[in-house]
Amino acid sequence: MSEVLELDCVVVGGGVVGLAVARELAIAGREVVLLEAEPITGSITSSRNSEVIHAGLYYPTGSLKAELCVAGRHRLYGYCDERHIPHRRCGKLVVASNEAEVAYLEKLLKQAKANGVDDCRLIDATELARLEPRIRGFAALVSPSTGIIDSHRLMEAYIVDIEAHGGAIVLNSPVLGGELLSDAIRLSVGGRDPVEIEARLVVNAAGLGAWAISGSLSGLDRKAMPERHYAKGCYFSLSGRAPAGRLIYPVPEPGGLGVHLTLDLAGQARFGPDVEWVETIDYDVDPRRADKFYAAIRRYWPDLADGALQPAYSGMRPKVVGPEGGGGGDFVIQGPEATGHPAYAALYGIESPGLTASMAIAERVGRLVGA
Ligand SMILES: Cc1cc2nc3c(=O)[nH]c(=O)nc-3n(C[C@H](O)[C@H](O)[C@H](O)COP(=O)(O)OP(=O)(O)OC[C@H]3O[C@@H](n4cnc5c(N)ncnc54)[C@H](O)[C@@H]3O)c2cc1C
């Protein structure tokens, strides 16, 4: 039998959330090894999103999404300033395209305030035309504290902190399965140099892979695992100049925030993500989906020219509630008490706003595991 490597903490998954968790634990003085299946960190959902720093408007008050988005946003802006991570507090407009949607904006303003987002305001069509002359609407909600970020530079900064506090990141190391021992977990790790690890704490931050890892741990109570659903979101990029300097959102659709205009830090515009409930993971963008994009975008930007959109990329939302349940659902962050094992913590359904909330999610995990 091969030798077993004994470790203190293992974080599984090197996306933005796993890196934030490993950083938090390393700063707290724990010995941390992060295992990532892929040859690089951050190449799955953390590379396939809108890179928006969300303010925290939409989520039900009291939900983890609301709490951790607002707390995470404050921490993220502070960290970006401190570490010179490229970002821009460009602001966003949620646009009502008809009178019925204005009532939604009023509700959203109340929701935002209840969540502790107190800088939003409603504007009428005239002010909207003054702020963003190419965007049309009956009214809009202005969110000044929404922004955009270079998520890869953020992840690089997390890695610098992990390594500065003695943590290690091991790539090409898929966790294949494991076994719960009385107060530790034995993991089988594949890759070129397969190894057996015994860890006093395992944090499963494997994103879309979180369910498979929990499912492969013999002795784990499966009842603690939430449902698993996938909602794919496609993006189309715009050739030519962006029609606005702020992010432009329609009112949300079930499962997502609606086909919105986001900008990258170079000012290039892209639209998306839409919502498609799927059973399997693939990242192809079907060019035929463009028809629906043109229709959705022209509700707030009527001058969008035919042929201006090109298929760009897609991402997959890990969801704990499916379309029958309304497609919402909160983050599920389980410490040892909730997983039912003293050495196991697991995160499920870390979809948007997981990037914004990453530092607050990590802080919560740290508290749950007593770091
Ligand atoms: C379309 C879309 C748009 C979004 N837009 C935004 C946004 O604008 N703002 C925002 O705040 N959030 C946004 N999000 C959410 C955000 O992208 C995610 O919450 C975040 O990236 C999740 O990070 P993660 O580390 O949990 O997952 P991931 O980035 O998926 O990382 C998980 C890692 O685990 C690894 N892994 C999986 N299985 C194993 C295994 N067995 N062994 C070892 N490693 C394994 C994977 O290779 C991967 O690197 C969006 C999400 C989507 C899908």
Structural features, described:
β11 (185-189) and β12 (195-204) form a beta hairpin. The model has no long low-confidence stretch (mean pLDDT 96). It is built from nine helices and 21 strands. The chain folds into two domains: 4-47 and 152-226 and 330-368, FAD/NAD(P)-binding domain; 92-144 and 229-319, D-Amino Acid Oxidase, Chain A, domain 2 (2-Layer Sandwich). The two termini are 33 Å apart. The chain is an alpha/beta fold and 371 residues long. The strands form four sheets. Strands 1, 2, 9, 10, 11, 12, 13, 20 and 21 form a nine-stranded mixed sheet that branches. Strands 14, 16, 17, 18 and 19 form a five-stranded antiparallel sheet that branches. Helices cover 28% and strands 28% of the residues. Flavin-adenine dinucleotide binds at residues 12-18, 35-38, 43-46, 48-52, 54, 174-175, 205-209, 213, 233, 273, 315-317, 350-356. Flavin-adenine dinucleotide binds next to α1, β19 and α9. Residues 8-365 form the FAD dependent oxidoreductase domain. It comes from Xaviernesmea oryzae. Belongs to the L2HGDH family. Keywords: FAD, Flavoprotein, Oxidoreductase. GO terms for molecular function: (S)-2-hydroxyglutarate dehydrogenase activity.
- Amino-to-carboxy terminus distance: 33 Å
Q: Taking all residues together, what is the mean pLDDT?
A: 96
Radius of gyration: 21 Å
Estimate the helix proportion, in percent. Answer: 25-40%
Proportion of residues in β-strands: 25-35%
Q: What's the CATH architecture of the largest domain?
A: 3-Layer(bba) Sandwich
**Overall form:** elongated
Oligomer: single chain
Unreliable runs: none
Helix run count: 9
